[in-house]
Amino acid sequence: MSCGSGRATVTSALRFLHVVAAIAALSWAVPAGATTDIALWHAMSGELGRQLEKLVSDFNASQSDYRIVPAYKGNYTETVTGAIFAFRSRSQPAIVQVNEVATATMTAAKGAIYPVFSLMRDQGEPFSLTDYLPAVSGYYTDAAGNLLSFPFNSSTPILYYNKTMFRDAGLDPEMPPKTWPALGIAAKRLRDHGAVCGFTTSWPSWIHVENFSAFHNLPVASRANGFAGLDAELTINNSVLVRHVAQLAEWQKTKVFDYGGRGQAAEPSFQNGECGIFIGSSATRADIRANSKFEIGYGIMPYWPDVKDAPQNSIIGGATLWVLRDRPRAEYKGVARFFAYLSQPGVQAAWHQNTGYLPITRAAFELTRSQGFYERNPGSAISFEEITLHPPTENSKGIRLGSFVLIRGAIEDELEQAFAGHKSAQAALDSAVERGNKLLRQFERASPDR
Ligand SMILES: O=P(O)(O)OC[C@H](O)CO
């Protein structure tokens, strides 16, 4: 699945939020004893979609006042774009799942969003931000430390490998490559033994630029990756990243690395045994386990060992649940109840275990450990270990850049130019910086808070 389509519409569509949200909220009357339906628009397909349906149906069965009605609306970009345009016809859902990359843009749409900290307070539902892992909650709080969206599904990239292909190529199936040089050697060996490709990855910018930078303690942008101000500028044309992209482009020539497209498009080539190594979201675990017919190995994201501070810590991805305004008042109580339900350690732990998304509360991690899940499922704690590897620095806390959906698109355009051999890595990243900075300045000029 590619997140390319609809990207260009996100920013213009968000302008409608400011306008439409100014219209006063309606408060439809709900007959006593009736069940209130609450729409949840999401982007979870495949095994993740099935797990989400189960979670929702468990909540619906746990009480009779509210019924969450999930609807799959396409990939992340299509889902948020659809919700924004639904404002035009006043048919927006109460809850929409938005991936991490659109956080700054959603945050800027102030009148259209109902911040989670206000919702939980207004509705009198229990909620404690300190229960959540700082690496998760820190990504979604405002400058005052208030939580804006509910951190439903947080992931981080990990390495997967095909133990059967490793054995066949004479590689140790219990030794995942830990560094980029080691991964290059293993992937070449796989190719020499007949693999269609050595390794591939999903989410090109998230993995090779955003997480790569955090893991090497390098900034993606000035101003603390954008957290400290809207005047941030991209810094991704540094020598470490240029060398990395140049190496990927070199490996691409012999399919030691094989570029597999944007979003999750590359996943099938690992699941069907074409590529022996895959770097992708920890939440790909559910689909890989469901669809692969080989023994799966897991490892941490590779790093360049000559870079000081590497490995630092990875950053989260995935998505959060945003609450949209102008729905009937009765729905918001149900949304708050649903979020309180999702925060329960048992519910959190089951979601983490069934999907590969991170245990977003300390209690869910401890419960999962005490249940022996990590011992029974080797590799399942890697995502947690990566994001907590070291205390986050300014470079590894996360990214808060306006129009980042579009910026990520520009970065991926340029990576594709480099992988196709049309541009040098330096020229591609210089161009990504130039294009990204233009988008940042446009966002800064359009922001009411600047
Ligand atoms: O596939 P997910 O849900 O882990 O998301 C990965 C990226 O963070 C999306 O921006």
Notes on the protein architecture:
It is found in: Periplasm. Belongs to the bacterial solute-binding protein 1 family. With 450 residues, this protein is of the alpha/beta class. It folds into 2 domains: 36-154 and 316-388, Periplasmic binding protein-like II (D-Maltodextrin-Binding Protein, domain 2), CATH 3.40.190; 157-314 and 402-446, D-Maltodextrin-Binding Protein, domain 2 (3-Layer(aba) Sandwich). Helix content is 45%, strand content 12%. It has helices at 7-20, 46-62, 76-86, 103-108, 116-122, 134-137, 163-168, 180-192, 204-215, 222-225, 239-252, 267-271, 285-291, 329-342, 345-355, 362-370, 373-376, 382-387, 404-419, 425-446, and strands at 36-42, 66-72, 95-99, 150-155, 157-162, 197-201, 275-281, 296-299, 317-323. It has a 5-stranded mixed sheet with strand order 2-1-3-9-4. The chain starts with 6 loop residues before the first helix and ends with a helix. Bound molecules: SN-glycerol-3-phosphate.
